[in-house]
Amino acid sequence: MFSENPIIRRKTKKIYVGDVAVGGDAPITVQSMTNTRTTDVEATVAQIKALENVGADIVRVSVPTIDAAEAFKLIKQQVNVPLVADIHFDYRIALQVAQYGADCLRINPGNIGNETRIQAVVDCAKDNNIPIRIGVNGGSLEKDIMDKYHEPTPEALVESAMRHVDILDKFNFDQFKVSVKASDVFLAVESYRQLSKQIEQPLHLGITEAGGFRAGAVKSAIGLGMLLSEGIGDTLRISLAANPVEEIKVGFDILKSLRIRSRGINFIACPSCSRQEFDVINTVNALEERLEDIITPMDVSIIGCVVNGPGEALVSDLGLTGGNRKSGYYLDGSRQKERIDNDDIVDQLEKKIRAKAAQVQQTIATLKPE
Ligand code: SF4
After folding, report:
1. Is the C or the N end of the chain the one with fewer CB within 10 Å?
2. Which amino acids does the record list as binding [4Fe-4S] cluster (predicted)?
3. How far apart are CA 148 and CA 126, in angstroms?
4. Ligand 1 pocket, 271 CB below 6 A?
5. Atom of ligand 1 minimally distant from the CA of 304
6. For position 1, what pLDDT does the model report?
């Protein structure tokens, strides 16, 4: 594997969302947001657990009403992953959910009214030792900023964000992270670039309202890929009009593609063509689904024929190269004597990948410092 990774991460302040570090030298975290009604505790807990299962580091839950705050209390008792309570205007909800164990408040201090209210929220965050996320969105900029810039521009988004930052500075509160999201890739990217030069707090990346699964994933990969490759970003959320579980998977896929953070299997597969010796597409799809529980980082190449199979297998932890009726199988780049029957390829590969993952995991454990 070509191992060089030229990304130099921007230095940021480390904050904690529950026990998950964000910023500084902490791994870039992947988060999502529930889309169930928060007052439906059972459905929301089930969705959070599904997100935990695919590796979500942090989950955001919308808390629009006092009833939702009461539900948040019950939800928080039933899940392990840190929860960010998303509040927009009513500062009393922030005070309530902080008492109920929220691990972070997503609230813009400039939107909650007079200084007494802001002071109450900041004091409450300090007392409960929880951070705040300032979230600016190109679609909901303040009226006077829109009057000044006429349309959402990077300068407009950053000015809006800095207003909230300045308020928290005034109240001597530095435990916060900031997002400046936009649905336009270039607008979001330039906004984050500019903001990254002005504050040392961690940045929460996202292309907001990115669209449906396919287009949204592509847009997010391009936007976040540009920023992450410049070292900008400490946590991210992929916003998709799709199951939130997909947001986590796409988030990890982006980090994996940039070799920033690995989780689970990185499948290298050819698109297949008439040379394929087995059904590459169905094999890869079946394996991806069956092996979702594996969190060990490893490269597995599934290639339909000898044109590219041996080359990819050489740089994979486990490789398969399609052959006539039986396919060649590689471990750590070495061709094994055993060949795998093409008729039983999925079951056989699943077993072998699981065995290899256990071995890689063992090696990782022995290499970890005490
Ligand atoms: S590796 Fe072989 S089967 Fe796969 S696309 Fe290339 S030529 Fe076709």
Report:
1. C
2. 270, 273, 305, 312
3. 34
4. yes
5. 3
6. 59
Phi, psi of 62 (to 5 degrees): -75, 135
Burial 17-28 (b: 16+ CB within 10 A, else e): bbebbbbeebbb
**What one-character-per-residue DSSP string does 211-268 give?**
-BHHHHHHHHHHHHHHHHHTT--SEEE---BS-HHHHHHHHHHHHHHTTS---SEEEE
Cβ of 304 below 6 Å from ligand 1: yes
Mutational test site, ligand 1, from 270, 278, 312, 327, max ligand atoms within 8 Å of CB: 270
104 in a known ligand binding site: no
Determine the topology of domain 265-367 in CATH.
Sulfite Reductase Hemoprotein; domain 1 (3.30.413)
CATH number of 15-257: 3.20.20.20
CA distance 235 to 243: 20
pTM: 0.91
Q: If you measure from the C-alpha of residue 273 to the centroid of ligand 1, how many angstroms do you get, rounded to a whole number?
A: 5
Residue whose CA is closest, atom 5 of ligand 1?
A: 272
Beta-carbon contacts of 324 under 8 Å, excluding residues fewer than 6 positions away, are 277
User: Per-residue pLDDT tens for 151-171?
Assistant: 999 999 999 999 999 999 999
Three-state DSSP state, 116: helix
pLDDT-based confidence at residue 63 (cuts at 50, 70, 90)? very high
User: Which DSSP symbol is given to 309?
Assistant: H
Tell me what pLDDT residue 271 has. Answer: 95
Q: Locate CATH 3.30.413.10 in the chain.
A: 265-367
Q: Is 124 annotated as a binding residue?
A: no
Instruction: Tell me the HSE value of 356 on the side-chain side, using a 13 A CA sphere.
Output: 22
Name which residue sits closest to atom 2 of ligand 1, judged by CA. Answer: 305
How far is 152 from 186, CA to CA, in rounded Å?
12
Name the β-bridge partners of 59: 32, 83
